[in-house]
Amino acid sequence: xxxxxxxxxxxxxxxxxxxxxxxxxxxxxxxxxxxxxxxxxxxxxxxxxxxxxxxxxxxxxxxxxxxxxxxxxxxxxxxxxxxxxxxxxxxxxxxxxxxxxxxxxxxxxxxxxxxxxxxxxxxxxxxxxxxxxxxxxxxxxxxxxxxxxxxxxxxxxxxxxxxxxxxxxxxxxxxxxxxxxxxxxxxxxxxxxxxxxxxxxxxxxxxxxxxxxxxxxxxxxxxx
Length: 224
Fold this sequence. Notes:
The chain contains 6 helices and 9 strands, in the order H-H-H-E-E-E-E-E-E-E-H-H-E-E-H.
């Protein structure tokens, strides 16, 4: 919900939490405050109106970059990693039927930065993700699109890559893909503070990792 994972990562959090050990997890998971509930309600009213379906997100410039994760979410990013306000999430996530589930908001991170204090949300709810490069691939034989492809920024740089202007040629050099033409989209996911919010009502709370009302497809449950 997750980037990263990811969405943003919704998908991003669950896809990358294990291999990215330096990431900082939330420090607070308590009940929603009155200001948080107000924020969530306004968010639900706004985003459900503007981005109810994945097609709405794509029209607004969001690009899918993950498979469905174990929460049932598929993440889309707009590559704008500094959310200017609560109306501009950096990521949106949808179920397998293209229905809106939630959103990620991002604040660019620098070492030593404090967790964001925005919109009445407890700062302890924010995640921190380290910089990495994501790409969307395409099988040259079948045309099948592949998601959840990433490499950490330090490894990309060590291979001669420029994270601010990433090239598929570096992925070829790293043996991540066979040819640059097999990469349809490549982008830098910078180090950010990230906040996940369920837009779909969630009995466990809008900031919970999972939503019991969302049921992943059989292929996701089986780990395929």
